[in-house]
Write a structure and sequence with these properties.
Length: 457
């Protein structure tokens, strides 16, 4: 817990209509008394907006720095849980710098990245998942990302974890009662009930773990790679999906020599579409390739291997054997792959072993709506309405540890291990769950979380 006073701009740098500087800590009242001509009316009326003429303590006669709006928040009813003030200045970079210089003279130091939010956590205003949600909400680029962050900020994940852990806490109390009062052996009915509780909790933890695949995509976006022979229509499809001429399209093989990535908002899911260089040259094509194109082909394979979904474009106007060989290798190296026949306006779908999942025409747009619908289903699957999702690696790893401890506790009961050993594993599972919420934490974990915030948050 810290007691010094910190400040930082909470609006973007540069010229603007308004710039806001936040101050938080034990010295806020002194700051207001030093900078404002009538501080009592401000301090006696917290959570109200006041029009003030700020003094410039650095000028010879304490001239007026700016006519500003000031809102004072008395502890604990502020974002940080401390006394807090927000100065709304005219959006001049000079005025912001000058106010910060005045604050330094008043022994206020500049806040570190994420320090306001960290103080909110340390003062019990929010828990750790809610603190992480603040950063996620600021970074949100789609409706789904913003919605997921808002739900976590509202405490939905924390409540879900509390519900998961409550049966374990009750069970641990019962086990410790057996340990403290060992007058008789554990009865079989009690042991069977303990097993049912642990098994049920483990199932709930597993459901949260399984949700990470979807939650990670919602939070970070999905990488979808467009792969195929040169001139299979990858760049044309990219342009059609984006509804703009982003990639150059010609009849010359090898036009795309490096990967092109663009963002697509797919019903709230952020998709990074990657148009890759044609990779057929490595599979028996007679056309010579230069070193630059060869490097592009190598990068195409790397994108294919790292993609959440690969769209393999089958060109019905080109020979089948090179595409069949390429498709076989692509399937062996991709995590998931959809086979698309392009140029459906020129040729019907193939009725052979390479029968595509979908056929479409980037030129006419035929089949593109069906592709977008299929993309969404392939990436997110069938989500249950209102299902809780895990979105961060930290939460996922903690849940894995919790499940491992629960599995060990079940094995201990089945093998007749002592209640002390069983209690140890239950405590370990609860510790992993508590680590997510922030009941137990280390300085390293807090440092990694809050260092990702911007200054002013």
């Amino acid at each position: 817990m810290t007691s010094d006073t910190i400040a930082a701009p909470i609006t973007a740098p540069g010229r603007a209509g308004v710039s806001v500087v936040r101050v938080s800590g034990a010295g806020v009242r002194g700051v207001i008394e030093a900078l404002c001509p009538a501080p009592d009316s401000i301090l006696e009326q917290p959570r109200r907006v006041h029009l003030v003429e700020l003094r410039d303590l650095l000028s010879a006669d304490s001239d007026v720095l700016d006519e500003a709006l000031l809102c004072f928040f008395a502890a604990p009813n502020s974002f940080t849980g401390e006394d807090c003030a927000e100065f709304h200045l005219h959006g001049s970079p000079f005025l912001v710098r000058r106010l910060l210089e005045n604050l330094r003279r008043l022994s206020v130091r500049m806040a570190e990245p994420g320090e306001f939010t960290r103080r909110a956590f340390e003062n019990g205003r929010i828990d750790l998942p809610q603190a992480e949600a603040v950063a996620d909400l600021i970074a949100a680029e789609t409706e789904s990302q913003a919605r997921a962050a808002r739900e976590q900020l509202a405490g939905r994940l924390s409540h879900a974890l509390s519900d998961v852990g409550e049966p374990l806490r009750n069970l641990l109390a019962e086990i410790e009662a057996w340990i403290d009062f060992p007058d008789e052996d554990i009865e079989q009915p009690a042991l069977a009930q303990w097993q049912r509780v642990v098994d049920s909790v483990r199932a709930n933890v597993s459901r949260l773990i399984d949700s990470y695949t979807t939650g990670k995509l919602l939070r970070s976006g999905a990488l979808v790679a467009l792969v195929g022979l040169p001139n299979a229509g990858k760049s044309s499809l990219l342009n059609r999906l984006l509804d703009e001429e982003r990639a150059i399209v010609t009849d010359i093989p090898g036009t795309t020599r490096d990967s092109i990535e663009e963002l697509l908002d797919l019903r709230g899911l952020l998709v990074r579409l990657c148009d890759t260089a044609g990779i057929g040259a490595a599979h028996g094509a007679v056309r010579a390739i230069d070193p630059v194109e060869a490097l592009g082909i190598e990068r195409s394979w790397k994108k294919l291997e790292s993609a959440d979904l690969v769209l393999f474009l089958l060109d019905p106007t080109q020979e089948l054997p090179p595409q069949q060989s390429l498709l076989s290798e692509a399937r062996s190296r991709a995590s998931r792959l959809l086979l698309l026949q392009t140029k459906s306006d020129l040729s019907p779908a193939r009725a052979d072993a390479l029968a595509p999942d979908l056929q479409l025409s980037a030129k006419t747009g035929d089949g593109v709506p069906a592709l977008l619908e299929r993309l969404y289903r392939e990436l997110l699957g069938e989500q249950s309405a209102g299902a809780q999702l895990i979105t961060t690696q930290r939460h996922y790893e903690a849940l894995i540890r919790a499940r491992e401890s629960l599995t060990e506790s079940l094995a201990a009961m089945q093998s007749g291990q002592s209640p002390e050993f069983l209690a140890l594993e239950i405590r370990s599972a609860l510790g992993a769950l508590d680590e997510i919420i922030g009941v137990t934490q280390t300085e390293d974990i807090l440092g990694r979380i809050f260092s990702k915030f911007c200054i002013g948050k």
